[in-house]
Amino acid sequence: MSVKIVLVAACALIDADGRVLIAQRPPGKPMAGLWEFPGGKVESGERPEVTLIRELKEELDISVKEDCLAPLTFASHAYPDFHLLMPLYVCRRWEGTVTALEGQNLTWVRPNKLRDFDMPPADVPLIAHLMALI
Ligand SMILES: Nc1nc2c([nH]c(=O)n2[C@H]2C[C@H](O)[C@@H](COP(=O)(O)OP(=O)(O)OP(=O)(O)O)O2)c(=O)[nH]1
């Protein structure tokens, strides 16, 4: 049986206090209300770093340089209707002020508090990697 693999690039923005930005998926979308790392689907022919730079501008109004995106780990998770493959980058440096351009709720959280937020199941194993990093 074939499975649809969906490639999503995600980023943990980390502020000077070691807090990570998460965003709440808006109503109407799959997994609405869950807290996730900013990012989005990698379009055909697009490099994941380019996806992230594009999504961070569209969603958060910040400019990120490619050499400020450091790969940390990835999620590989079987959802009922697709398989998610999601590289997680970290970024500590950007230009501009983080602004919720799509009306999404945003919050900055210490990694050891991420478990207090409902996140997509694919994201749960990523928390330990952020705790180890910060
Ligand atoms: N951005 C992001 N997506 C995540 C995370 N964890 C996780 O399972 N996902 C899933 C949710 C979606 O199925 C997919 C990301 O797609 P998306 O946010 O660009 O698209 P979407 O579901 O709104 O769908 P679409 O309308 O753009 O087609 O990856 C995460 O931490 N960040």
UniProtKB/TrEMBL annotation:
GO MF, one example: 8-oxo-7,8-dihydroguanosine triphosphate pyrophosphatase activity
GTP-binding keyword on record: no
Residue ranges occupied by any Nudix hydrolase domain in the UniProt entry: 4-133
Listed cofactors: Mg(2+)
Top EC class of this enzyme: hydrolase
One GO biological process term: DNA repair
Keywords: DNA damage, DNA repair, DNA replication, Hydrolase, Magnesium, Metal-binding, Mutator protein
Family listed: Belongs to the Nudix hydrolase family.
This protein's name: 8-oxo-dGTP diphosphatase
Source organism: Undibacter mobilis
Lineage: Bacteria, Pseudomonadati, Pseudomonadota, Alphaproteobacteria, Hyphomicrobiales
